[in-house]
């Protein structure tokens, strides 16, 4: 299967998932999400070799997270979801950061990053209040915030990764 075909299939799955998630109840949406992540896991099994263990591990962990979302009611399931999600995000951050050379950072970059963290930390606190009924346990609260901050770190590392490779991509055409 060539890259263009694979990209078309992935785009179609994402589009179908996005449209369907607007139409279904939450239970059907969870099963749809599980099916979608299962499709991505199958693609990952086909694409990744044994050398790319970490890449395959991310897809497997995210599939397991989606499986746990279907049975979200139990505190142990919620904790398991957060632990698996934290592992998968940590692997993604590791894979991203090892590709990035230390960028030159200006004062405006530092200010932007601090503002990004401040705004998103506020959003994280507001989300915790929204989900307060399912996060009445201190361990779950710790997992919730760890998960949230790792997502913020992942977004920043993906941003720096895209800047680095966008410059390389543009230089190859110029």
Topology of this protein?
Elements: H1 3-23, H2 26-47, H3 53-70, H4 75-97, H5 107-130, H6 138-173
Helix pairs in contact: 1-2, 2-3, 3-4, 4-6, 5-6
Notes on the protein architecture:
The chain has 174 residues and is mostly helical. It has two domains: 1-70, no CATH class; 73-174. It has six helices and no strands. Helix 5 (107-130) runs antiparallel to helix 6 (138-173). The radius of gyration is 18 Å and the shape is globular. The mean pLDDT is 81.
DSSP, total strands? 0
Rg (CA only): 18 Å
Low-confidence stretches: none
Strand content: under 5%
User: How many strands, which pairing sense, and closed or not: the largest β-sheet?
Assistant: none
State the end-to-end distance. Answer: 30 Å
Based on CA inertia axes, which overall geometry fits? globular
Structural class: mainly alpha
The number of helices is: 6
Mean pLDDT: 81
Number of domains: 2
Helix content: over 70%
């Amino acid at each position: 299967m060539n890259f263009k075909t694979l990209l078309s299939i992935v785009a179609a799955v994402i589009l179908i998932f996005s449209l369907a998630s607007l139409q279904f109840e939450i239970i059907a949406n969870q099963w749809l999400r599980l099916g979608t992540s299962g499709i991505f896991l199958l693609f990952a099994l086909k694409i990744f070799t044994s050398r790319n263990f970490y890449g395959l591990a991310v897809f497997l962990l995210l599939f397991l997270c989606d499986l746990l979302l279907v049975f979200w009611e139990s505190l142990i399931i919620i904790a398991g979801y957060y632990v698996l999600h934290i592992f998968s995000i940590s692997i993604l951050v590791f894979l991203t950061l090892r590709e990035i050379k230390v960028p030159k950072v200006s004062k405006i970059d530092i200010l932007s990053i601090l503002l990004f963290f401040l705004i998103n930390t506020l959003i994280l606190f507001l989300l915790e209040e929204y989900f307060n009924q399912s996060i009445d346990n201190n361990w779950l609260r710790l997992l919730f915030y760890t998960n949230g901050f790792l997502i913020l770190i992942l977004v920043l590392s993906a941003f720096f990764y895209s800047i680095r490779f966008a410059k390389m991509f543009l230089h190859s055409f110029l």
